[in-house]
Amino acid sequence: MKENTKHIIATKDLRKIYKEDGLEVEAVRGVDLTIESGEFSAIVGPSGSGKTTFLNIISGLDTPSSGDVWLKGRLLTRLSGNELSDLRRDNIGFIFQAYNLIPVLTVEENVEYVMMLQGLPKHERHQRVLNILKQVGLKGMEKRFPPKLSGGQQQRVAIARAMVSRPALILADEPTANLDSKTGTALLQIMHDLNGDTGMTFLFSTHDPMVMAWAKRIITLKDGRIAKDDKKN
Amino acid sequence: MWLYIKLAWRNIFRNKRRTVIASTAIGIALACLLFFDSFIIGLEHNMIASATSSFLGHAQIHRQEFRHTQEPAYTINNPDQIMQSLKQETIVEAYTPRTLSIGMITSAANLNSVLIVGVDPQAEKAVSKVDDAVRKGDFFKGQKPQDIVIGSELAEILEVSLGERVVLTLAQAESGDLSQDMFRVSGIYHFGVREMDSGMVFIHIKKAQDMLNISGQVHEIAIKFKSLQYASDDNLAFWSKYSHNGNEALSWGELLPDLKGVFEMTGVFRSVMSLLLMFVVIFGIVNTLFMSLYERMFELGVLRAVGTRPWGVMKLMICESGALAVLSIAVGLFLGLIITGLFTITGIDYRGIEFAGSVIQEVVFPVMKPFQFIIYPIGLLLFMVLVGLYPAVVAARMSIADAIRKSL
After folding, report:
1. Pair (B24, B86) in one structural domain
2. Which of A58, B167, B324, B396 is the most exposed place for a label (fewest CB within 10 A)?
3. How far is B5 from chain A (nearest CA, A)?
4. Which ipTM did the prediction report?
5. How far apart are CA B143 and CA B161, in angstroms?
């Protein structure tokens, strides 16, 4: 398969086999999928359908047993550990279900962490942090530590951290799972707006009907295979 | 790097209790090392002082053949010239000439072989502590040529006390003819060293020279330097200056090789002690870092996921190890300074205990040296960082997918 630069993600016959207690478990079974730049998509499916494994592989956190995966045209299986780290740092923003902020860093430090890894100058980092925190409604909370924030606020920080370095792709795992519906809707609105404003690609893994309602494309995984791929008009 | 240092410093305070316990344990190990080292140095100083100041002196000059043969004919060449020269030496505080010969002492009740030491009482006082060790009578205050000062155990063997008469018999130098004279016990000393208390007697040097028929000659010149450190300096010009014309000048270390050997042995003890304490450190730090690592596996997985390179995670863990080291060193230095400092004031009383042929005569005061408070903490820091490499490598090589399995 020839890589296409319009595709932010492309997979070909992607497979992942785990060995557990001597038994082989095929978590992903020959998935062919392309995600195009600017999409606002969701991968859905029951527990054990392979969503997590699939997202791990396309983000370079795990390696496939066979098959190929391209991220922005680069074949991940050919990259070294450091190259994969740099690729994630520069191209992917992660939003996790459990917020996953560094509790010993302030809101500002959490948000600027990836930019520090990128080596951006301090004044630029600071400016970007202030802008993104304003966008997610956390202006004035720069010096607070995560444990002092509510769940919704922490998830906003996580979104800010994922987006501040302006990655091409945001991977969000159950971003609304621990939030009430009002806060969840507000965050989805923020992400939707950012998608519209910046053209960032969003790929959710979710069970939440509310997220599915916002998504413009829903990919349903079942038993490690794509069972359905619906695009909304 | 500053980011990792900041993260590490804050991370180690996330579980304050564990950090306090670990840093206190490692700090106590460092404090023990500092105390033990200071004590050993103090003990060495004490033993050297006991050995050198009681009788030996910091250095001695002999005729080259004398020490091995103990032959009274081997007297120092040009002793007057040497003593004149010693008087000019700026590093020499005092010196004293002696004659040494093996002989027999006899009383009405018993007899014993002894080392007969001819001394100049005034010069001797400035170098040795024989006069201080006199328990009964005095150390040649009367200036009577027939006075003799004997050890307490010898007095018991001979069953004599002050004022009683004894007879000394010795072989004259060169001729080997026997020479005999009667003396009156004017002093009884007690050093606490059996060999000295039972086998050494002191008489006036002039009398000894007459008996040995070596008029004006001496076998030994004992020297006290202004500082003991001169005696430890092998490159001191003093040694070559006085080791010529058939004579030899030797430091206490060469005169008492056994004692020097003991100090080398204590060096081994110190190394073993350091090693044992380092094991405490290994378990302390590895346990703490691994507990911290497994507790934060998910968080480290997130750091890796957002783009931190494996080496970045390693740096973070190494910095945490270093931060724990800094804290432990602060605790160790504080405890070490307080505990050792206290004993440098009060001292530790091991007086009377014989160790390696030398009796501890003074209270042992631990000696704190600047290097202990520089080298050991730096060593501990480097060691802890080195030990921290193990959990750091584990953290760097972890599977990101496994670490964050709970989420993505």
Report:
1. no
2. B167
3. 12
4. 0.87
5. 19
Nearest-Cα residue of chain A relative to residue B9:
A104
How far does the CA of residue B302 sit from the closest CA of chain A (Å)? 7
Cβ–Cβ gap B408/A96 under 8 Å: yes
Strand-pair category, B358-359 with A40-44: unpaired
Sort out which chain A residues have CB atoms less than 8 A from B295's CB and list them: none
Q: Are residues B80 and B222 in the same domain?
A: yes
Q: How far apart are CA B371 and CA B379, in angstroms?
A: 11
Domain shared by B30 and B106, yes or no: no
Among B186, B215, B245, residue at a domain's last position: B245
Residues of A in contact with B300 (CB under 8 A): none
The two beta strands, B147-151 and B200-204, are antiparallel
Beta-carbon separation of A88 and B303 below 8 A: no
Contact with chain A for residue B295, Cβ under 8 A: no
CA pair distance B161, A9, nearest whole angstrom: 109
Per-residue pLDDT for chain A (233 aa), expressed as one digit of tens each? 444 456 889 999 999 998 877 788 888 999 999 999 999 999 998 888 888 889 989 999 899 999 999 998 899 988 988 999 999 999 999 888 776 788 889 999 999 999 998 999 999 999 999 998 988 888 889 999 999 998 888 988 998 898 888 898 999 888 887 777 887 888 888 889 888 888 889 999 988 888 899 999 999 999 889 999 988 76
pTM: 0.73
Residues in Cβ contact with B353 at an 8 Å cutoff, skipping those fewer than 6 apart? B359, B360
Q: What is the pLDDT of residues B127-141, one digit of tens each?
A: 998 899 999 999 998
What CA–CA distance (Å, rounded) separates A56 from B63?
A: 88
Check if A85 contacts B (Cβ < 8 Å): yes
B269 and B129 housed in the same domain: no
- Contact check, Cβ <8 Å, A52/B408: yes
Q: Measure A232 CA to nearest chain B CA, in Å.
A: 25
Q: How many alpha carbons fall within 13 Å on the CB side of residue B83?
A: 18
Q: What residues make up the domain containing B274?
A: 2-51+265-405
